[in-house]
Task: structure prediction
Amino acid sequence: MAETIPLLFLDTVRQIPRSVAQYSKQGGNGFQPTSYTDLAVEVAAFAAGLAAVGVKRGDNIGLIADNRKEWLICDLAILGLGAVDVPRGCDATDQEISYILSFSQCATAIAETEKQVDKILARRADLPRLRQIIAIDKCGESMQAKADQAGVSLLAYAEVFANGQPRLKADPSFYEREAALGKRDQMATIIYTSGTTGEPKGVMLSHGNFLHQVETLPERLALVPGMIWLSVLPVWHSYERMVQYAIIGVHDTIAYSKPIGAVMLPDFQAINPQWMASVPRIWESVMDGVNKSIRQSSAAKKAIFAFCLSVGRNYANFRNMLLGRYPNFGDRTRLFDSLTALLPLLILLPFRGLAEVLVFKKIKVKLGNKFVAGISGGGAIPPAVDDFFDAMGIQLLEGYGLTETAPIVALRRQKNPTMGTVGAPLVGTEFRIVDDEDRDLGLFAKGHVQIRGPQVMLGYYQKPELTAKAFTPDGWLRTGDIGLLAANRALKLTGRAKDTIVLRGGENVEPIPIEQKLVESVYIKQAVVLGQNQRHLAALLVPDQDVLTGWAKENNVPYIDYESLLLQPETLELFDYEVSQLVNPRNGFKIFERILRHELLPNAFAVDRELSAKQEVKRHAINDLYARQIARLFRE
Result:
Protein backbone atom coordinates (compact mmCIF):
# COMPACT_ATOMS: atom_id res chain seq x y z
CA MET A 1 0.00 0.00 0.00
CA ALA A 2 1.10 3.57 -0.67
CA GLU A 3 3.09 5.48 1.94
CA THR A 4 0.94 8.64 1.83
CA ILE A 5 -2.42 9.85 0.55
CA PRO A 6 -0.93 11.66 -2.50
CA LEU A 7 1.03 8.52 -3.40
CA LEU A 8 -2.18 6.48 -3.11
CA PHE A 9 -3.80 8.94 -5.51
CA LEU A 10 -0.90 8.78 -7.98
CA ASP A 11 -0.96 4.96 -7.90
CA THR A 12 -4.65 5.04 -8.82
CA VAL A 13 -4.01 7.54 -11.62
CA ARG A 14 -1.36 5.24 -13.10
CA GLN A 15 -3.64 2.19 -12.90
CA ILE A 16 -6.93 3.69 -14.17
CA PRO A 17 -6.00 6.98 -15.90
CA ARG A 18 -9.15 7.23 -18.02
CA SER A 19 -11.67 6.20 -15.37
CA VAL A 20 -13.93 8.85 -13.87
CA ALA A 21 -12.70 10.24 -10.56
CA GLN A 22 -15.39 12.87 -9.96
CA TYR A 23 -18.86 13.81 -11.13
CA SER A 24 -19.70 17.41 -10.30
CA LYS A 25 -22.40 19.82 -11.39
CA GLN A 26 -21.19 22.72 -13.47
CA GLY A 27 -23.69 25.42 -14.30
CA GLY A 28 -26.97 23.96 -15.50
CA ASN A 29 -25.37 21.08 -17.35
CA GLY A 30 -25.90 18.39 -14.73
CA PHE A 31 -23.14 16.02 -13.68
CA GLN A 32 -19.89 16.44 -15.60
CA PRO A 33 -17.10 13.84 -15.36
CA THR A 34 -13.46 14.43 -14.48
CA SER A 35 -11.07 11.57 -15.23
CA TYR A 36 -8.31 10.56 -12.86
CA THR A 37 -5.76 11.88 -15.35
CA ASP A 38 -7.46 15.27 -15.59
CA LEU A 39 -7.79 15.43 -11.82
CA ALA A 40 -4.08 14.67 -11.44
CA VAL A 41 -3.22 17.51 -13.84
CA GLU A 42 -5.37 19.93 -11.83
CA VAL A 43 -3.88 18.78 -8.52
CA ALA A 44 -0.32 19.09 -9.80
CA ALA A 45 -0.93 22.55 -11.30
CA PHE A 46 -2.52 23.87 -8.12
CA ALA A 47 0.29 22.39 -6.02
CA ALA A 48 2.84 24.12 -8.25
CA GLY A 49 0.87 27.34 -7.88
CA LEU A 50 0.86 27.01 -4.09
CA ALA A 51 4.61 26.46 -4.11
CA ALA A 52 4.98 29.58 -6.25
CA VAL A 53 3.26 31.70 -3.58
CA GLY A 54 5.47 30.33 -0.84
CA VAL A 55 3.71 27.26 0.55
CA LYS A 56 6.30 24.78 1.72
CA ARG A 57 6.68 21.46 3.51
CA GLY A 58 5.42 21.57 7.10
CA ASP A 59 3.21 24.66 6.66
CA ASN A 60 -0.31 24.66 8.09
CA ILE A 61 -2.82 25.81 5.47
CA GLY A 62 -6.37 26.84 6.37
CA LEU A 63 -9.06 25.31 4.14
CA ILE A 64 -12.46 26.91 4.77
CA ALA A 65 -14.78 25.26 2.27
CA ASP A 66 -17.63 22.81 1.85
CA ASN A 67 -17.80 19.61 -0.19
CA ARG A 68 -17.03 20.26 -3.87
CA LYS A 69 -14.55 19.02 -6.46
CA GLU A 70 -12.08 21.84 -5.71
CA TRP A 71 -11.84 20.76 -2.07
CA LEU A 72 -10.22 17.48 -3.03
CA ILE A 73 -7.90 19.27 -5.46
CA CYS A 74 -6.78 21.67 -2.71
CA ASP A 75 -6.37 18.85 -0.22
CA LEU A 76 -4.27 16.63 -2.49
CA ALA A 77 -2.17 19.61 -3.58
CA ILE A 78 -1.45 20.67 0.00
CA LEU A 79 -0.63 17.14 1.14
CA GLY A 80 1.52 16.51 -1.93
CA LEU A 81 3.72 19.45 -0.95
CA GLY A 82 4.18 17.97 2.51
CA ALA A 83 2.06 20.71 4.07
CA VAL A 84 -0.83 20.21 6.50
CA ASP A 85 -4.39 21.36 5.86
CA VAL A 86 -6.58 22.80 8.59
CA PRO A 87 -10.16 22.41 7.33
CA ARG A 88 -13.45 23.91 8.41
CA GLY A 89 -16.87 24.28 6.78
CA CYS A 90 -18.59 27.41 5.53
CA ASP A 91 -21.01 27.33 8.47
CA ALA A 92 -18.19 28.23 10.86
CA THR A 93 -18.40 31.61 12.57
CA ASP A 94 -15.71 34.24 12.14
CA GLN A 95 -14.71 33.59 15.76
CA GLU A 96 -14.22 29.86 15.11
CA ILE A 97 -12.27 30.48 11.92
CA SER A 98 -10.10 33.06 13.66
CA TYR A 99 -9.27 30.69 16.51
CA ILE A 100 -8.44 27.82 14.17
CA LEU A 101 -6.23 29.85 11.83
CA SER A 102 -4.52 31.68 14.67
CA PHE A 103 -3.87 28.67 16.90
CA SER A 104 -2.59 26.68 13.90
CA GLN A 105 -0.32 29.57 12.88
CA CYS A 106 -1.60 29.62 9.32
CA ALA A 107 0.08 32.09 6.97
CA THR A 108 -2.09 30.91 4.05
CA ALA A 109 -5.81 30.20 4.01
CA ILE A 110 -8.02 28.92 1.21
CA ALA A 111 -11.62 30.17 1.38
CA GLU A 112 -14.50 28.94 -0.74
CA THR A 113 -16.53 32.12 -1.16
CA GLU A 114 -16.34 35.86 -0.71
CA LYS A 115 -18.35 35.44 2.50
CA GLN A 116 -15.64 33.23 3.99
CA VAL A 117 -12.97 35.70 2.92
CA ASP A 118 -14.91 38.43 4.70
CA LYS A 119 -15.09 36.35 7.90
CA ILE A 120 -11.32 35.98 7.89
CA LEU A 121 -10.65 39.65 7.17
CA ALA A 122 -13.08 40.68 9.92
CA ARG A 123 -10.67 39.05 12.38
CA ARG A 124 -7.48 40.31 10.78
CA ALA A 125 -6.26 41.78 14.08
CA ASP A 126 -6.30 38.29 15.62
CA LEU A 127 -4.32 36.78 12.73
CA PRO A 128 -0.88 38.42 12.72
CA ARG A 129 0.71 35.51 10.82
CA LEU A 130 -1.84 35.49 8.01
CA ARG A 131 -0.19 36.55 4.78
CA GLN A 132 -2.53 35.49 1.99
CA ILE A 133 -6.01 34.18 1.21
CA ILE A 134 -6.86 32.12 -1.87
CA ALA A 135 -10.54 32.39 -2.85
CA ILE A 136 -12.01 29.44 -4.76
CA ASP A 137 -14.94 31.49 -6.09
CA LYS A 138 -14.29 34.89 -7.64
CA CYS A 139 -14.33 37.90 -5.31
CA GLY A 140 -15.48 41.40 -6.20
CA GLU A 141 -13.35 44.53 -6.34
CA SER A 142 -14.63 45.75 -2.97
CA MET A 143 -13.38 42.60 -1.25
CA GLN A 144 -10.04 42.95 -3.02
CA ALA A 145 -9.81 46.50 -1.69
CA LYS A 146 -10.73 45.31 1.80
CA ALA A 147 -7.95 42.71 1.69
CA ASP A 148 -5.45 45.29 0.46
CA GLN A 149 -6.41 47.59 3.31
CA ALA A 150 -5.93 44.73 5.78
CA GLY A 151 -2.49 43.99 4.39
CA VAL A 152 -3.48 40.55 3.12
CA SER A 153 -2.82 39.29 -0.39
CA LEU A 154 -6.11 38.06 -1.90
CA LEU A 155 -5.53 35.60 -4.73
CA ALA A 156 -8.03 33.82 -6.96
CA TYR A 157 -7.98 30.03 -7.12
CA ALA A 158 -7.89 30.26 -10.92
CA GLU A 159 -4.92 32.61 -10.69
CA VAL A 160 -2.92 30.25 -8.47
CA PHE A 161 -3.86 27.35 -10.75
CA ALA A 162 -2.75 29.30 -13.85
CA ASN A 163 0.52 30.35 -12.22
CA GLY A 164 1.33 26.72 -11.50
CA GLN A 165 1.00 25.58 -15.11
CA PRO A 166 4.25 27.14 -16.44
CA ARG A 167 6.19 25.65 -13.54
CA LEU A 168 4.60 22.29 -14.21
CA LYS A 169 5.37 22.55 -17.91
CA ALA A 170 9.02 23.24 -17.12
CA ASP A 171 9.13 20.50 -14.49
CA PRO A 172 6.44 17.86 -15.28
CA SER A 173 7.47 15.58 -12.41
CA PHE A 174 7.31 18.34 -9.77
CA TYR A 175 4.26 16.98 -7.94
CA GLU A 176 5.36 13.35 -8.09
CA ARG A 177 8.80 14.28 -6.76
CA GLU A 178 7.38 16.32 -3.88
CA ALA A 179 4.85 13.61 -3.02
CA ALA A 180 7.60 10.97 -2.93
CA LEU A 181 9.20 12.79 0.02
CA GLY A 182 6.19 12.13 2.25
CA LYS A 183 6.14 9.58 5.06
CA ARG A 184 3.29 7.48 6.45
CA ASP A 185 3.64 8.89 9.98
CA GLN A 186 3.73 12.48 8.72
CA MET A 187 0.89 14.75 9.85
CA ALA A 188 -1.73 15.29 7.13
CA THR A 189 -4.34 17.43 8.81
CA ILE A 190 -5.47 19.22 11.95
CA ILE A 191 -9.23 18.89 12.41
CA TYR A 192 -10.70 21.01 15.16
CA THR A 193 -13.41 19.60 17.37
CA SER A 194 -14.95 21.38 20.32
CA GLY A 195 -13.79 20.51 23.82
CA THR A 196 -15.96 20.24 26.94
CA THR A 197 -15.33 23.90 27.68
CA GLY A 198 -16.23 24.89 24.15
CA GLU A 199 -12.60 25.65 23.22
CA PRO A 200 -11.72 23.76 20.02
CA LYS A 201 -9.13 20.99 20.09
CA GLY A 202 -6.98 20.35 17.03
CA VAL A 203 -6.88 16.62 16.27
CA MET A 204 -3.64 15.77 14.48
CA LEU A 205 -4.10 12.93 12.00
CA SER A 206 -1.35 11.34 9.94
CA HIS A 207 -1.41 9.89 6.45
CA GLY A 208 -1.16 6.46 8.06
CA ASN A 209 -4.23 7.09 10.22
CA PHE A 210 -6.37 7.48 7.10
CA LEU A 211 -4.59 4.84 5.02
CA HIS A 212 -5.20 2.12 7.59
CA GLN A 213 -8.92 2.39 6.90
CA VAL A 214 -8.43 2.53 3.14
CA GLU A 215 -6.58 -0.77 3.51
CA THR A 216 -9.05 -2.49 5.86
CA LEU A 217 -12.51 -1.35 4.69
CA PRO A 218 -12.56 -3.82 1.76
CA GLU A 219 -12.58 -6.60 4.39
CA ARG A 220 -16.04 -5.33 5.48
CA LEU A 221 -17.49 -4.17 2.17
CA ALA A 222 -17.71 -5.77 -1.27
CA LEU A 223 -16.00 -2.90 -3.06
CA VAL A 224 -15.09 -3.22 -6.73
CA PRO A 225 -13.59 -0.68 -9.14
CA GLY A 226 -15.94 1.60 -11.03
CA MET A 227 -18.64 2.01 -8.38
CA ILE A 228 -20.13 5.45 -7.74
CA TRP A 229 -20.48 7.01 -4.28
CA LEU A 230 -22.93 9.85 -3.75
CA SER A 231 -21.14 12.40 -1.58
CA VAL A 232 -23.43 14.51 0.63
CA LEU A 233 -21.62 15.09 3.94
CA PRO A 234 -19.24 17.88 5.03
CA VAL A 235 -15.84 16.87 3.74
CA TRP A 236 -13.97 18.74 6.46
CA HIS A 237 -15.30 16.10 8.86
CA SER A 238 -12.94 13.14 9.07
CA TYR A 239 -15.73 10.70 8.10
CA GLU A 240 -16.53 11.99 4.61
CA ARG A 241 -12.88 12.78 4.03
CA MET A 242 -11.76 9.24 4.82
CA VAL A 243 -14.50 7.87 2.56
CA GLN A 244 -13.19 9.97 -0.33
CA TYR A 245 -9.69 8.58 0.21
CA ALA A 246 -11.16 5.06 0.27
CA ILE A 247 -12.96 5.79 -3.01
CA ILE A 248 -9.63 6.70 -4.57
CA GLY A 249 -7.99 3.61 -3.07
CA VAL A 250 -10.53 1.15 -4.48
CA HIS A 251 -10.69 2.92 -7.88
CA ASP A 252 -14.24 4.22 -7.50
CA THR A 253 -15.93 7.54 -8.35
CA ILE A 254 -17.22 10.46 -6.24
CA ALA A 255 -20.45 12.23 -7.27
CA TYR A 256 -21.07 15.48 -5.38
CA SER A 257 -24.57 16.16 -4.07
CA LYS A 258 -26.18 17.67 -0.96
CA PRO A 259 -28.05 16.13 2.03
CA ILE A 260 -31.28 17.85 0.99
CA GLY A 261 -34.10 15.69 -0.34
CA ALA A 262 -34.93 18.04 -3.21
CA VAL A 263 -31.31 17.77 -4.42
CA MET A 264 -30.25 14.31 -3.27
CA LEU A 265 -33.18 12.24 -4.57
CA PRO A 266 -32.98 13.61 -8.16
CA ASP A 267 -29.23 13.00 -8.02
CA PHE A 268 -29.86 9.34 -7.15
CA GLN A 269 -31.86 9.08 -10.37
CA ALA A 270 -29.32 10.99 -12.44
CA ILE A 271 -26.15 9.24 -11.33
CA ASN A 272 -27.31 5.79 -10.06
CA PRO A 273 -24.79 5.43 -7.22
CA GLN A 274 -24.02 2.15 -5.51
CA TRP A 275 -22.96 3.65 -2.16
CA MET A 276 -23.49 6.66 0.06
CA ALA A 277 -21.77 7.71 3.27
CA SER A 278 -24.47 9.21 5.45
CA VAL A 279 -25.75 10.16 8.88
CA PRO A 280 -28.92 8.74 10.51
CA ARG A 281 -30.89 11.94 9.93
CA ILE A 282 -30.75 11.42 6.16
CA TRP A 283 -32.40 8.01 6.41
CA GLU A 284 -34.89 9.27 8.95
CA SER A 285 -35.89 11.98 6.48
CA VAL A 286 -36.36 9.41 3.72
CA MET A 287 -38.50 7.30 6.06
CA ASP A 288 -40.54 10.35 7.10
CA GLY A 289 -41.09 11.21 3.45
CA VAL A 290 -42.40 7.72 2.71
CA ASN A 291 -44.69 7.78 5.74
CA LYS A 292 -45.98 11.25 4.87
CA SER A 293 -46.81 10.09 1.36
CA ILE A 294 -48.68 7.07 2.74
CA ARG A 295 -50.67 9.21 5.19
CA GLN A 296 -51.92 11.29 2.27
CA SER A 297 -52.96 8.25 0.21
CA SER A 298 -56.23 6.32 0.09
CA ALA A 299 -57.39 3.92 2.79
CA ALA A 300 -56.69 0.97 0.50
CA LYS A 301 -53.10 2.06 -0.15
CA LYS A 302 -52.55 2.63 3.57
CA ALA A 303 -53.75 -0.88 4.32
CA ILE A 304 -51.55 -2.42 1.62
CA PHE A 305 -48.50 -0.52 2.87
CA ALA A 306 -49.14 -1.49 6.50
CA PHE A 307 -49.52 -5.15 5.52
CA CYS A 308 -46.39 -5.17 3.37
CA LEU A 309 -44.31 -3.40 6.00
CA SER A 310 -45.45 -5.88 8.65
CA VAL A 311 -44.53 -8.78 6.37
CA GLY A 312 -41.16 -7.19 5.63
CA ARG A 313 -40.36 -6.65 9.29
CA ASN A 314 -41.30 -10.17 10.29
CA TYR A 315 -39.40 -11.67 7.36
CA ALA A 316 -36.30 -9.61 8.22
CA ASN A 317 -36.55 -10.64 11.87
CA PHE A 318 -36.73 -14.37 11.11
CA ARG A 319 -34.00 -14.08 8.47
CA ASN A 320 -31.72 -12.34 10.97
CA MET A 321 -32.47 -15.05 13.53
CA LEU A 322 -31.72 -17.82 11.03
CA LEU A 323 -28.43 -16.25 9.94
CA GLY A 324 -27.30 -15.43 13.48
CA ARG A 325 -27.33 -11.70 12.91
CA TYR A 326 -28.46 -10.77 16.41
CA PRO A 327 -25.68 -10.18 18.94
CA ASN A 328 -24.95 -12.74 21.64
CA PHE A 329 -24.22 -11.08 24.97
CA GLY A 330 -23.83 -14.35 26.82
CA ASP A 331 -27.40 -14.42 28.03
CA ARG A 332 -28.45 -17.47 26.01
CA THR A 333 -27.52 -19.56 22.99
CA ARG A 334 -28.63 -18.39 19.56
CA LEU A 335 -28.86 -21.93 18.16
CA PHE A 336 -32.52 -22.19 19.15
CA ASP A 337 -33.24 -18.96 17.26
CA SER A 338 -31.91 -20.45 14.04
CA LEU A 339 -33.93 -23.64 14.45
CA THR A 340 -37.21 -21.85 15.14
CA ALA A 341 -36.80 -19.24 12.40
CA LEU A 342 -36.73 -21.51 9.35
CA LEU A 343 -40.41 -22.52 9.15
CA PRO A 344 -41.93 -19.03 9.58
CA LEU A 345 -39.37 -17.69 7.12
CA LEU A 346 -40.53 -20.18 4.47
CA ILE A 347 -44.17 -19.33 5.17
CA LEU A 348 -43.48 -15.60 4.79
CA LEU A 349 -41.36 -15.96 1.64
CA PRO A 350 -44.18 -15.65 -0.96
CA PHE A 351 -45.76 -12.76 0.98
CA ARG A 352 -42.37 -11.03 1.08
CA GLY A 353 -42.15 -11.40 -2.70
CA LEU A 354 -45.60 -9.84 -3.05
CA ALA A 355 -44.61 -6.94 -0.76
CA GLU A 356 -41.53 -6.36 -2.91
CA VAL A 357 -43.67 -5.97 -6.04
CA LEU A 358 -46.48 -3.94 -4.46
CA VAL A 359 -44.47 -1.53 -2.27
CA PHE A 360 -40.75 -2.01 -1.67
CA LYS A 361 -39.58 -1.92 -5.28
CA LYS A 362 -41.32 1.43 -5.80
CA ILE A 363 -39.48 2.90 -2.82
CA LYS A 364 -36.10 1.39 -3.72
CA VAL A 365 -36.21 2.91 -7.19
CA LYS A 366 -36.02 6.36 -5.59
CA LEU A 367 -32.41 5.45 -4.75
CA GLY A 368 -31.69 4.56 -8.37
CA ASN A 369 -31.45 1.04 -9.73
CA LYS A 370 -27.94 0.10 -8.56
CA PHE A 371 -27.91 1.08 -4.88
CA VAL A 372 -26.02 -1.38 -2.66
CA ALA A 373 -25.91 0.16 0.82
CA GLY A 374 -25.65 3.26 2.93
CA ILE A 375 -22.77 3.58 5.38
CA SER A 376 -24.14 5.40 8.41
CA GLY A 377 -22.02 7.17 11.01
CA GLY A 378 -21.95 10.33 13.07
CA GLY A 379 -24.54 9.05 15.56
CA ALA A 380 -26.61 5.96 16.26
CA ILE A 381 -29.31 4.87 13.82
CA PRO A 382 -32.66 4.87 15.67
CA PRO A 383 -33.88 1.25 15.86
CA ALA A 384 -37.15 2.17 14.12
CA VAL A 385 -35.22 3.55 11.14
CA ASP A 386 -32.88 0.55 11.04
CA ASP A 387 -35.85 -1.84 11.11
CA PHE A 388 -37.80 0.14 8.49
CA PHE A 389 -35.09 -0.13 5.85
CA ASP A 390 -34.16 -3.68 6.82
CA ALA A 391 -37.80 -4.64 6.21
CA MET A 392 -37.61 -3.19 2.70
CA GLY A 393 -34.31 -4.79 1.84
CA ILE A 394 -32.37 -1.51 1.81
CA GLN A 395 -29.13 -2.18 3.64
CA LEU A 396 -27.77 0.33 6.15
CA LEU A 397 -24.37 -0.49 7.61
CA GLU A 398 -23.78 1.35 10.86
CA GLY A 399 -20.24 2.24 11.83
CA TYR A 400 -18.52 3.88 14.76
CA GLY A 401 -15.63 6.22 15.15
CA LEU A 402 -14.29 9.51 16.41
CA THR A 403 -12.43 12.40 14.85
CA GLU A 404 -9.54 11.16 17.01
CA THR A 405 -9.58 7.83 15.12
CA ALA A 406 -9.73 9.24 11.57
CA PRO A 407 -12.61 8.21 12.19
CA ILE A 408 -13.79 4.61 11.60
CA VAL A 409 -12.90 1.91 14.11
CA ALA A 410 -15.86 -0.44 13.59
CA LEU A 411 -18.39 -1.21 10.88
CA ARG A 412 -21.07 -3.84 10.34
CA ARG A 413 -20.12 -6.41 7.75
CA GLN A 414 -21.98 -6.12 4.47
CA LYS A 415 -22.40 -9.88 4.02
CA ASN A 416 -23.56 -10.82 7.51
CA PRO A 417 -24.03 -7.76 9.73
CA THR A 418 -24.59 -7.99 13.47
CA MET A 419 -27.80 -6.02 13.89
CA GLY A 420 -28.21 -3.56 16.74
CA THR A 421 -24.45 -3.01 16.94
CA VAL A 422 -21.80 -0.97 15.16
CA GLY A 423 -19.96 -4.15 14.21
CA ALA A 424 -16.63 -5.59 15.29
CA PRO A 425 -13.39 -3.57 15.20
CA LEU A 426 -11.60 -3.22 11.88
CA VAL A 427 -8.62 -5.46 11.22
CA GLY A 428 -5.68 -4.28 13.33
CA THR A 429 -7.96 -2.35 15.70
CA GLU A 430 -8.67 -3.40 19.28
CA PHE A 431 -11.53 -2.61 21.67
CA ARG A 432 -11.67 -3.13 25.38
CA ILE A 433 -14.39 -2.38 27.90
CA VAL A 434 -13.15 -1.12 31.25
CA ASP A 435 -14.46 0.08 34.59
CA ASP A 436 -13.75 3.48 36.15
CA GLU A 437 -10.27 2.29 37.15
CA ASP A 438 -9.38 1.14 33.61
CA ARG A 439 -9.70 -2.54 34.56
CA ASP A 440 -10.67 -4.75 31.62
CA LEU A 441 -14.22 -6.12 32.03
CA GLY A 442 -14.07 -8.54 29.09
CA LEU A 443 -17.09 -9.54 27.02
CA PHE A 444 -20.76 -8.90 27.85
CA ALA A 445 -20.10 -6.29 30.59
CA LYS A 446 -21.05 -2.64 30.17
CA GLY A 447 -18.31 -0.09 30.72
CA HIS A 448 -16.08 2.54 29.14
CA VAL A 449 -15.02 1.88 25.54
CA GLN A 450 -11.30 2.20 24.84
CA ILE A 451 -9.55 1.81 21.48
CA ARG A 452 -6.09 0.96 20.23
CA GLY A 453 -5.07 0.83 16.58
CA PRO A 454 -3.15 2.37 13.66
CA GLN A 455 -5.89 4.95 13.00
CA VAL A 456 -5.63 6.59 16.44
CA MET A 457 -4.53 10.23 16.30
CA LEU A 458 -1.07 11.66 16.87
CA GLY A 459 -2.53 13.88 19.59
CA TYR A 460 -4.08 17.32 20.07
CA TYR A 461 -2.19 20.16 18.41
CA GLN A 462 -0.17 22.20 20.93
CA LYS A 463 -2.10 20.62 23.83
CA PRO A 464 0.15 17.97 25.41
CA GLU A 465 -1.82 17.88 28.67
CA LEU A 466 -5.09 17.16 26.85
CA THR A 467 -3.32 14.52 24.77
CA ALA A 468 -2.02 12.81 27.90
CA LYS A 469 -5.51 12.76 29.42
CA ALA A 470 -6.94 11.20 26.26
CA PHE A 471 -4.83 8.05 26.66
CA THR A 472 -4.41 5.46 29.39
CA PRO A 473 -0.88 4.79 30.69
CA ASP A 474 -0.74 1.65 28.53
CA GLY A 475 -1.71 3.50 25.35
CA TRP A 476 -5.47 3.02 24.93
CA LEU A 477 -7.59 5.93 23.70
CA ARG A 478 -10.39 6.91 26.06
CA THR A 479 -13.45 7.40 23.85
CA GLY A 480 -15.83 8.68 26.48
CA ASP A 481 -18.44 6.20 25.22
CA ILE A 482 -20.19 3.45 27.15
CA GLY A 483 -20.84 0.05 25.60
CA LEU A 484 -20.42 -3.70 25.73
CA LEU A 485 -18.93 -6.37 23.48
CA ALA A 486 -20.85 -9.34 22.08
CA ALA A 487 -19.38 -12.81 21.67
CA ASN A 488 -18.12 -11.93 18.17
CA ARG A 489 -16.66 -8.67 19.58
CA ALA A 490 -19.32 -6.56 17.88
CA LEU A 491 -19.77 -3.39 19.89
CA LYS A 492 -23.11 -2.18 21.19
CA LEU A 493 -23.04 1.44 22.34
CA THR A 494 -25.35 2.33 25.19
CA GLY A 495 -24.43 5.93 25.94
CA ARG A 496 -21.73 8.55 26.27
CA ALA A 497 -19.62 9.15 29.32
CA LYS A 498 -18.28 12.35 27.87
CA ASP A 499 -20.49 15.34 27.34
CA THR A 500 -20.55 15.76 23.57
CA ILE A 501 -24.02 15.34 22.08
CA VAL A 502 -24.37 14.02 18.52
CA LEU A 503 -27.69 14.83 16.87
CA ARG A 504 -29.27 12.60 14.23
CA GLY A 505 -28.02 14.92 11.51
CA GLY A 506 -24.45 14.28 12.67
CA GLU A 507 -24.02 17.72 14.26
CA ASN A 508 -21.75 17.73 17.30
CA VAL A 509 -22.97 19.86 20.20
CA GLU A 510 -21.08 20.72 23.35
CA PRO A 511 -23.73 21.13 26.06
CA ILE A 512 -21.65 22.92 28.69
CA PRO A 513 -21.46 26.33 26.95
CA ILE A 514 -25.23 26.18 26.39
CA GLU A 515 -25.84 25.20 30.01
CA GLN A 516 -23.59 27.98 31.19
CA LYS A 517 -25.57 30.45 29.11
CA LEU A 518 -28.91 29.18 30.41
CA VAL A 519 -27.96 29.67 34.05
CA GLU A 520 -27.21 33.31 33.31
CA SER A 521 -30.95 33.77 33.71
CA VAL A 522 -31.93 34.80 37.22
CA TYR A 523 -34.75 32.29 37.02
CA ILE A 524 -32.59 29.24 36.14
CA LYS A 525 -30.46 27.67 38.86
CA GLN A 526 -29.32 24.51 37.08
CA ALA A 527 -29.61 23.21 33.51
CA VAL A 528 -28.84 20.02 31.63
CA VAL A 529 -28.95 19.95 27.83
CA LEU A 530 -30.05 16.71 26.17
CA GLY A 531 -30.34 15.36 22.64
CA GLN A 532 -28.05 12.40 21.96
CA ASN A 533 -29.30 10.72 18.74
CA GLN A 534 -32.33 13.02 18.65
CA ARG A 535 -33.49 15.52 16.03
CA HIS A 536 -33.09 18.52 18.31
CA LEU A 537 -31.86 19.68 21.69
CA ALA A 538 -33.97 19.87 24.83
CA ALA A 539 -33.21 20.81 28.43
CA LEU A 540 -34.10 19.95 31.98
CA LEU A 541 -34.21 23.19 33.98
CA VAL A 542 -34.17 23.67 37.74
CA PRO A 543 -35.63 27.10 38.54
CA ASP A 544 -34.41 29.28 41.36
CA GLN A 545 -37.35 28.74 43.67
CA ASP A 546 -37.02 31.98 45.61
CA VAL A 547 -36.73 34.12 42.49
CA LEU A 548 -39.57 32.34 40.74
CA THR A 549 -42.01 32.56 43.65
CA GLY A 550 -41.12 36.23 44.02
CA TRP A 551 -41.87 36.77 40.33
CA ALA A 552 -45.20 34.95 40.71
CA LYS A 553 -46.19 37.17 43.62
CA GLU A 554 -45.28 40.35 41.75
CA ASN A 555 -47.21 39.26 38.67
CA ASN A 556 -50.24 37.84 40.49
CA VAL A 557 -49.74 34.34 39.12
CA PRO A 558 -52.09 31.98 40.99
CA TYR A 559 -50.83 28.60 42.23
CA ILE A 560 -51.50 26.11 45.00
CA ASP A 561 -47.96 24.92 45.70
CA TYR A 562 -44.53 25.22 44.09
CA GLU A 563 -44.97 22.22 41.80
CA SER A 564 -48.24 23.64 40.51
CA LEU A 565 -46.49 26.97 39.86
CA LEU A 566 -44.12 25.19 37.48
CA LEU A 567 -47.11 24.12 35.37
CA GLN A 568 -48.83 27.49 35.11
CA PRO A 569 -49.05 28.90 31.55
CA GLU A 570 -47.45 32.16 32.69
CA THR A 571 -44.47 30.26 34.12
CA LEU A 572 -44.02 28.19 30.97
CA GLU A 573 -44.20 31.34 28.86
CA LEU A 574 -41.56 33.01 31.05
CA PHE A 575 -39.09 30.15 30.61
CA ASP A 576 -39.81 29.90 26.87
CA TYR A 577 -38.83 33.56 26.62
CA GLU A 578 -35.72 33.19 28.81
CA VAL A 579 -34.41 30.21 26.85
CA SER A 580 -35.06 31.80 23.45
CA GLN A 581 -33.35 35.03 24.50
CA LEU A 582 -30.25 33.27 25.79
CA VAL A 583 -29.60 30.48 23.28
CA ASN A 584 -29.80 31.99 19.81
CA PRO A 585 -27.52 33.01 16.92
CA ARG A 586 -27.17 36.52 18.35
CA ASN A 587 -25.28 34.99 21.27
CA GLY A 588 -23.05 32.91 19.03
CA PHE A 589 -25.04 29.68 18.97
CA LYS A 590 -25.78 27.76 15.79
CA ILE A 591 -29.33 27.02 14.63
CA PHE A 592 -29.09 23.36 15.64
CA GLU A 593 -27.99 24.41 19.14
CA ARG A 594 -31.36 25.96 19.95
CA ILE A 595 -33.38 24.42 22.79
CA LEU A 596 -36.70 23.45 21.24
CA ARG A 597 -38.26 21.95 24.38
CA HIS A 598 -37.63 22.07 28.10
CA GLU A 599 -39.07 20.72 31.33
CA LEU A 600 -38.99 22.39 34.74
CA LEU A 601 -37.91 20.26 37.70
CA PRO A 602 -39.06 21.03 41.25
CA ASN A 603 -35.96 19.79 43.11
CA ALA A 604 -32.36 20.96 42.80
CA PHE A 605 -29.68 18.49 41.72
CA ALA A 606 -27.82 16.94 44.65
CA VAL A 607 -24.36 15.44 45.19
CA ASP A 608 -24.26 11.62 44.88
CA ARG A 609 -27.52 11.76 42.95
CA GLU A 610 -27.39 14.02 39.90
CA LEU A 611 -24.01 15.55 40.77
CA SER A 612 -20.54 14.14 41.40
CA ALA A 613 -18.42 15.12 44.38
CA LYS A 614 -16.91 17.80 42.16
CA GLN A 615 -20.39 19.22 41.52
CA GLU A 616 -20.26 18.01 37.92
CA VAL A 617 -23.45 16.76 36.31
CA LYS A 618 -23.60 12.96 36.07
CA ARG A 619 -25.34 12.75 32.72
CA HIS A 620 -25.98 9.01 32.82
CA ALA A 621 -27.62 9.42 36.21
CA ILE A 622 -29.77 12.20 34.77
CA ASN A 623 -30.85 9.90 31.94
CA ASP A 624 -31.92 7.22 34.41
CA LEU A 625 -33.50 9.45 37.05
CA TYR A 626 -35.49 11.55 34.61
CA ALA A 627 -36.24 8.99 31.90
CA ARG A 628 -39.97 9.81 31.92
CA GLN A 629 -39.43 13.55 31.58
CA ILE A 630 -36.82 13.06 28.86
CA ALA A 631 -39.17 10.80 26.91
CA ARG A 632 -41.77 13.59 26.93
CA LEU A 633 -39.24 16.10 25.64
CA PHE A 634 -38.49 14.01 22.56
CA ARG A 635 -41.93 12.59 21.90
CA GLU A 636 -42.77 13.08 18.22
Remarks:
- The chain has a mean pLDDT of 94.
- Residues 404-458+468-496 form a domain with the Luciferase; domain 3 fold (CATH 2.30.38.10).
